[in-house]
Amino acid sequence: VQLQASGGGLVQAGESLRLSCVASASIHTIPVVAWYRQAPGKQRELVASIGHGIGIDYADSVKGRFTISRDSVKNTLDLQMNNLRPEDTALYYCDAQRGNLNFWGQGTLVTVSS
Fold first, then answer.
1. Residue 24: closest CA among 98, 92, 89
2. Are the beta carbons of 3 and 94 closer than 8 angstroms?
3. Cβ-based neighbours of 100, under 8 Å, separated by 6 or more
4. What's the rounded mean pLDDT across residues 76-90?
5. pLDDT at residue number 54
6. What pLDDT shows up at residue 97?
7. What is the pLDDT of residues 31-77, one digit of tens each?
8. At a CB cut-off of 8 Å and minimum separation 6, what does 55 contact?
9. In whole angstroms, what is the distance from residue 98 CA to residue 25 CA?
């Protein structure tokens, strides 16, 4: 599965961004899809995920602000990010999991200024 993320940019605190990740396979057939992020000097962390039979999960730090969804028309995994904070600044990656295999997109940079 090939993934390509887009939508990052520079915004001010309180503003919104929408990230999209186009997949080479049907997005709804992939068992688990997710968004991760990695801030400078920190480990990569899970932001949100959608899985067949396991529903939707969010990191505590983004609950109520971020929404993950699959778009069957555009075949994308989207992440709507509202009320952004400076601590959301990171490189955001989309991820697809099939069995024991993990596929990663190239990352899109989100920078939130205070």
1. 98
2. yes
3. none
4. 97
5. 87
6. 93
7. 999 999 999 999 999 999 999 888 999 999 999 999 999 998 999 99
8. none
9. 11
